[in-house]
Amino acid sequence: MNRLNISRREWENWRGQIHARVTTLNGLAQAWQRPLAAPDSLRFVLKSYPLAVTPYYLSLIDPDDEADPLARQCLPDAREVSLAHAGLADPLDEDGRMPVPNLIHRYSDRVLAMVTRSCAVYCRHCNRKRFWKMRQEAGLQSRLAAMVRYVQNAPQVREVILSGGDPLMHDDDRLEAVLAAFKSVPHVEVLRIGTRTPVVLPMRITKDLCRMLRRYRPLWLNTQFNHPAEITKDAARACAMLLEAGIPVSNQSVLLQGVNDSPDVMRRLLHGLQKIAVRPYYLFHCEPVRGCLHLRTSVAAGLALMEELRRDCSGLALPQYVADLPGEAGKVPLLCLSETLKNDLQKHQDFFDNLK
Ligand code: SF4
After folding, report:
1. For ligand 1, is residue 123 a contact (CB within 6 Å)?
2. pLDDT tier, 139 (very low <50, low <70, confident <90, very high otherwise)
3. What are the tens digits of pLDDT across the range 153-201?
4. CATH classification at residue 209
């Protein structure tokens, strides 16, 4: 499907996809060849939280389905602004933990470097929505130099995570300059990239990119599939290319109401990831971010979901359900045993006690 009239050549090229992104309500109405419902309230949302979606990701959405789980992740919703008073702009207090601009140091052995503010798609559940309206900062070179200097003087840091925004919005040369700069620090042992491009812009994973990334191993890549419909042939191919280049790919989903909060959907997602050799790593409880509250579930619902999944999925397909908390507490596993599980454990314990 190509309702945006972009050529096949543009479609297959990641820059063509970026160039043809839908960023306005008119553009969306044009792509779907129909007027949008309640455009005025959506226009109001866009004043705070802009819209950007690649033609590729848009093509996976069913415009006739008002509850489409991919649409919920990328298209504006009036509740982003109507519930905004209740959320926090920066619930993890990341801004308070930047020893130099754009470098977050929360845990002693690793730092997170925000190397861009751009993303291919603006995910409505993003916990860094506060940056969307800010202008892209110029001068990556000088910001990078300050970040690298900080890491050089912090010998306890053994891992650097490139994040943003999405680091793969940089072209290969710029990305390589960033990787090389951190790799040059003798005590940095591991590099990691957080990117959603395999999911929303799989064309970004090219042979040239993989050849370049290969040179910076051990390099780990974390992505974010949230729904089985995102595991397309293109996405699977992108992940396979990374894996063939020796880059392990792990997945960090966010638990989102109306997207993946049912056992059936989550089971299909986890099994689908296992089939394409992407390791389900974390399932994040959605943070109380301003503009995302309508997508949150309760922790109780998340725990009930995990309990169902534990019955149906092998350990290899099970992510760890965590809440990211401010400060050093970090990612706290959410574990709670239901009465059934407690009884099962007790029976197990009794069995061993009887053997004594
Ligand atoms: S790709 Fe990541 S940083 Fe960018 S909008 Fe989505 S969740 Fe936020």
Report:
1. yes
2. confident
3. 999 999 999 998 999 999 999 999 999 999 999 999 999 999 999 999 9
4. 3.20.20.70
Domain limits for position 49: 8-85
- What is the 108 CA–ligand 1 centroid distance (Å)? 24
**What ligand 1 atom has the least distance to the C-alpha of 122?**
5
pLDDT exceeds 90 at position 43: yes
What is the end-to-end Cα distance of the chain in Å, rounded? 66
Residue type present at position 54: T
Residue 351 has pLDDT above 70, yes or no: no
Q: Does 303 lie in the same domain as 157?
A: yes
Ligand 1 centroid distance, CA of 120 (Å): 8
CA 165 to centroid of ligand 1, rounded, Å: 6
From residue 94, how far is each of 166, 182, 245, 253, 268 by CA, in Å?
A: 17, 21, 32, 20, 33
With respect to residue 346, please indicate whether it lies within any of the assigned structural domains.
Answer: no
Count of residues for the chain? 356
pLDDT of residue 91: 87
Which of 161, 170, 196, 251 has the most ligand 1 atoms within 8 A of CB, as the residue to mutate?
196
- Does residue 170 belong to any structural domain of this protein? yes
Q: Which pLDDT does position 338 carry in this prediction?
A: 66
Does the CB atom of residue 196 touch ligand 1 within 6 A? yes
Q: Is 165 in the pocket of ligand 1 (CB under 6 A)?
A: yes
Q: What's the CA gap between 216 and 210, in Å, rounded?
A: 10
Q: Which residue from 102, 245, 215, 101 is spatially nearest to 164, judged by alpha carbons?
A: 102
User: Rounded mean pLDDT of the chain?
Assistant: 92
Q: Which domain-ending residue is among 85, 118, 140?
A: 85
Count of domains for the chain? 2
